[in-house]
Amino acid sequence: MLKSKSAVTGLIISLSFFAFTAIEIFELDLKLSHLIYQDNQWETGNENLWQWFYKWGPTPSNLSGIFCLIYWFYQKVIRKAENINTGLILFPLLTLLIGPGIMVNLVGKELWGRPRPVNCIEFGGKYQFKHVSEPCYSSNQKSFPSGHAASGFHLCALSIYFRKKWKFYSFYFFASWGILISTARLLQGGHFISDIFGAIILVALTFVLLYPKSNHTTK
Question: For residue 128, what is the domain's CATH number?
């Protein structure tokens, strides 16, 4: 199990290196944002649909963490069930706290200090555009990585409760939620595409590191 986790972790890190390198070489952050920024405004992102995703997008993920905590408390404290798989039951909560919570919002955003597209000079703001490879520790900007995207893709943690082929179907279903939230943030000038990739990578690493040994809640 340890070897497989190490292999997957190495693969994710390697792919992220190539992805960020390609984004920087081909200037995909600026090019994509320029395509969205029409007539000096983020008009599409202000539509009700995308505003709804911005406001409510993280809610399902947050609720999943609360519900699994309630279920664990019911099994462990009220029913006094023995041999329950705590790692499995609390998987959505733990990955939510460590992924979107600590690694993205408390560590990543605070360390990088990257200006959001809407705040960059290229799009009518006052801050100079920064590549992912240019962290600005003294800045109060918090574009990288995307907290909304991290919360959206974190919903994929629920796929752990499905069996066989339904695990893959559910994963793609939950991932679509993350894609919609990420699209909203791109259209609103809230994030660059590399901010989205950064969120996905950190969430994926959290999944791998916290993945429980067994997929059974009880023995």
Answer: 1.20.144
